[in-house]
Amino acid sequence: MLLRNRNFLILFSGQIVSMVGNNFYLIALPWYVLQLTGSKYDLTLTGVVQTLPGLAGLFIGVLVDRWNKRRTMIVADFLRGIVALALFSITIFHVVNSRNFMIILFLIPLAELIGTVFYPAQMSLMPKIVPNSQMDKAMAWNQSGSSVAGIAGLFGGGTILSLLGAPFMFAFNGLSYIVSSVSLFFVRVSESKKLSMQRSGLFVAILNATTNTVALRVTPADVQGRVFGALGAASTLSQPLGMLIFGWLMINLNLTIVFSVMGIIVIGGSLLYLRGTLRNAGVPIMGASE
């Protein structure tokens, strides 16, 4: 059974914690920026600098292929935790204000840049801790966990934000990354030397880039980092269009309407996606046909 796989369970649990923390951060950040500067343009700029580091995935994946994946993930999560706690410190002690807003615009892309290292390392590590026969279920569990973390972040994040404020949500995000980093010390995996590159496998993986499971199955181990780095960058390339649309909506429409519609879409989409991924993971669903 997949959940009896100690390494997968540790990795999965640590990622759930960090994803909840990251969703808290994603909720708190735009609210804090708007409260700090009162400018919708600054809010849009924050979103833009948040997406740009993802393009580094095109190049970072090549480096990740050469590094020890577990150690890379440990260092990446630890550094993201430090950056998030730095953001907590400058906000809780009111170091940052509308005049030195550039401090935040520096920390945000720094955290995202570190994150571009983590994702390809995580995906490259998966085949080393999960048997090929269970890879489909492992990816389904990961996607289910991401959906659950997103829903928890939406519902819990709003409550915590109203009770404690944005700085404490930044602190929770930082601590969640530290917890994830520490948990990875307990993952025991043997990482083999570089294997010979199979060009056909890499080509097929790129063609099927929409499905992580397919990419994991057909991509040679020595190039998985660059493949998933490229997939992350491709995802980032699609985000500026979304930011332009989102920015226009925020400037021209009432913020309450924008965030309400976004919340409905995210919650509805997450629930539908969660239903599908739970079914793929073999989890019984009430009301689902046999």
TrEMBL record:
Task: Name where it's found.
Answer: Cell membrane
GO terms, molecular function: transmembrane transporter activity
- Which terms in the GO cellular component ontology are assigned? plasma membrane
- Name the major location: membrane
Q: TM spans, by residue?
A: 7-33, 45-64, 76-95, 101-119, 140-164, 170-189, 227-251, 257-274
Q: According to Swiss-Prot or TrEMBL, what is its membrane topology?
A: Multi-pass membrane protein
Keywords of this protein's UniProt record, alphabetized?
A: Cell membrane, Membrane, Transmembrane, Transmembrane helix
Q: Which top-level group of life is the source organism from?
A: Bacteria
Coiled coil ranges (UniProt) are none
InterPro entries registered for this protein in UniProt = Bacilysin_exporter_BacE_put, MFS, MFS_trans_sf
Q: Tell me the protein's name.
A: Major facilitator superfamily (MFS) profile domain-containing protein
Q: Which organism is it from?
A: Ferroacidibacillus organovorans
